[in-house]
Amino acid sequence: MSGVTNPIKRLAGETAIYGMGTIVPRLLNYLLTPFFTRVLVRADYSVLTEMYSWVAILLVILTYGMETAFFRFSSQTKDKKTVYGTAFTSILVTTILFLILIFSLSKDIASMIDYASNPEYILYVGLIVAMDAIAAIPFAYLRENRKAMRFSAIKLINVIVNIALNLYFLWLAPKIAQSNPDAVWLVFYRPEINVGYIFIANVISSAVTLLLLLPELLKTRLKLEIEVWKKMVRFAYPLAFIILLGMVNEVADKLLMKHLLTDESLEVRKTLLGEYGANFKLAVLMSIFIQMFRFAAEPFFFAQAREKNARPVYAEVMKYFIIFGWLIFLGVMLFIDILKYFIDSSYHDGLAIVPIILIAKLFQGVFYNLSIWYKLTDLTRMGAWIALAGTAITLLANFILVPRIGYQGAAIGQLLCYGSMAVLSFFLGRKYFKVGYPLKRIGLYSAFALAIYWGSSLVTINNNILSFVVNGLLLLMFFIVAVVAEKKNFHKFSS
After folding, report:
1. CB-CB neighbours of 265 under 10 Å
2. Which of 144, 189, 207, 362 is deepest in the core (most CB within 10 A)?
3. How far apart are CA 48 and CA 274, in angstroms?
């Protein structure tokens, strides 16, 4: 059994380190949410919700699964430099073509998505996506070589620069302008830019990231080895399709909402979209956990596949993932009366979507765990069909539910999508790459967590301090039960 614990312990440690580059920056960015909801009206906040949804989709298109292909082929060859150079060169060429397209058609694209008066938003988005795409393979190189500390440090600096610039442009500069409009500090400040400064800050921080990645960029041999590239693309394109569909599942609600809501005024629809987007951010802790886990798990799963005990390890990883997922769910929902003030009170009408989004995100993480079966068996086309089913459910749910019940329908669509994908992947995985997941124990933890949440929602405690103490004890109770139930495995981790 020691063979099982050591790799899991290593994964836990690397997940924690990647957390420094994921959870700390995301939490810092999270602190911008209350700031944005207080300096921007809901209609302006909807611009961020919508435009960053496009950023997410475009980034998937521009990286087209090359990160995973890099991990796969780098682990199978001694000539890692060729794999690295081919992956990077491929993305660099397609990114340059993308930028040419964006700069040529920015005004037309802006008109198509109702931003005709702000075509510069399209240019900003194009630059952000392009620089992040170019950085993707160098970051994958750091992950593959287990340089988690450097990875985390660069991610952290990126966010610090971004936050500092946002605070300057949206808070400090306006204050200086009121008291001293001729101050030298205002040489780059134009109040009419407003929301645009958020994108400008991102462009600058992405440029800083590329500068910090110069050592990895300078190591790159800009040469496209055609045979290697063909193999990588054949492996990657189904994955890219899966990731793209996954991103559509993630952001379709935000891109479609202002067109599906039945309110006549575009301004009202944009306001509701801003409200939905802000409350969606309250589920950020679950998203952060999933992201930091994915950064560590993907190279870990491929490396572990060579070991005899791989499948028992995958089963254990799933169990602990779900335990921590429910801990995050309870941590958010038991203290939602405190956490809700991270967004302005004008957005609080949307709080009902938060538990739905949290559970949807947990299912998303379960799907990522399960996806190892089609990656290791090279059956990525099966993963594509699962993702396609999820997208169909997402679109159907949005088109049917949003016009009838508003943005709550979009949240339900997320839950139906990721829940269905997890179930489909589980049953297909049993056929092609069976892993003995501890379903009974997972089910008991899930039922226990939901019972705690349901029970707490039935009781109203008017005393804030008493409420905080009771909910803290409920959260601690779940944690203690998990520790006691997993005592043997926890003991092995410490050995």
Report:
1. 9
2. 362
3. 8
Cα-based torsion angle of the residue sequence 292, 481, 9, 327 in order, rounded to the nearest 10 degrees: 0
How many CB atoms within 10 Å of residue 188?
Answer: 11
Task: Tell me the C-alpha to C-alpha distance, in Å, between residue 151 and each of 17, 140, 298, 425.
Answer: 9, 9, 15, 31
Listed as ranges, residues in the chain with pLDDT below 70 are 1-30, 75, 77, 264, 295-300, 302-307, 488-495
Q: Would you report the helix, strand and coil content of the chain in percent, each value rounded to 5?
A: 85, 0, 15
Give the per-residue pLDDT at 305.
63
Structure tokens at 322: 């779900």
First-last CA distance in the chain: 12
Both tokens assigned to 230: 């063909």
State the virtual CA torsion across 173, 178, 180, 183 in degrees, nearest 10: 20
What's the Cα-to-Cα distance from 174 to each of 47, 85, 186, 197, rounded to whole Å? 20, 45, 9, 12
The dihedrals phi and psi of 432, each to the nearest 5 degrees, come to -100, -25
Rg of the chain (C-alpha set) = 23
Query: Per-domain residue ranges for the chain?
Result: 2-493
CB neighbour burial string for 37-57, b if at least 16 within 10 angstroms, e if fewer: bebbebbbbbbbbbbbbbbeb
List Cβ neighbours of 141 (8 Å cut-off, separation of 6 or more): 70, 84, 216
Is residue 15 within 8 Å of 149, Cβ to Cβ? no
3 state SS of 146: coil
| Identity of the amino acid at 5 | T
How far is Cα 322 from Cα 491, in angstroms, rounded to an integer?
A: 19
Give the phi and the psi of residue 220 in degrees, each rounded to 5. Answer: -75, 130
Element at 71 (helix H, strand E) = helix 66-74
| Res 20: pLDDT | 57
Which pLDDT belongs to residue 482? 87
pTM of the predicted model as reported, rounded to 2 decimal places = 0.74
Of 45, 38, 49, which Cα lies nearest the Cα of 342? 38
